[in-house]
Amino acid sequence: MLHLDKLLLSLGDFHLSADLTIAPQSRVAVIGPSGAGKSTLLSAIAGFLPPASGRILWEGRDITQTAPGARPLSILFQDQNLF
Questions:
Q1: Strand 2-11 vs strand 61-62: parallel, antiparallel, or unpaired?
Q2: For residue 72, what is the DSSP state?
Q3: What was the pLDDT predicted at 74?
Q4: According to the model, what pLDDT value does residue 57 have?
Q5: Cβ neighbours around 33 below 10 Å, total
Q6: Is the predicted pLDDT of residue 82 greater than 70, yes or no?
Q7: Is 58 helix (H, G, I), strand (E, B) or coil?
Q8: What is the pLDDT of residue 75?
Q9: What does the DSSP 8-state code read for residue 44?
Q10: Would 43 disulfide with which of 26, 48, 72, 81, CB 3.0-4.6 Å?
Q11: Across the beta sheet with 61-62, what order do the strands follow?
């Protein structure tokens, strides 16, 4: 289960907050217009962007400060990037 606990992301003048729980085996779509913060949110979950505040929990374990390569999840980029 993925839980975003009062997550706040700040990039300059842009601020995004998220507080949600995604149950195991759920399928979730993140949709919105360009600039809404979809990639920013996914990058934070994957560990590429540190949150200004809040926590990212995976199966009850706080992974907010865990390095991207050590997280039990990842992100698949649209472009041909490899992490």
A1: unpaired
A2: S
A3: 77
A4: 97
A5: 7
A6: no
A7: strand
A8: 80
A9: H
A10: 48
A11: 14-22, 2-11, 53-58, 61-62
Q: How many CB atoms lie within 10 A of CB 47?
A: 21
* Cα distance between residue 50 and residue 34, in whole Å: 21
CA distance 42 to 48: 9
Backbone phi, then psi, for 39, in 5-degree steps?
Answer: -65, -35
d(CA 14, CA 71): 26
Please identify which residue in the block is written with the tokens 């998220």.
Answer: 18
Eight-state DSSP code of residue 35: T
Dihedral angle, C-alpha 15, 18, 24, 29, nearest 10 °? -60
Specify whether the CB–CB gap between 15 and 8 falls below 8 A: yes
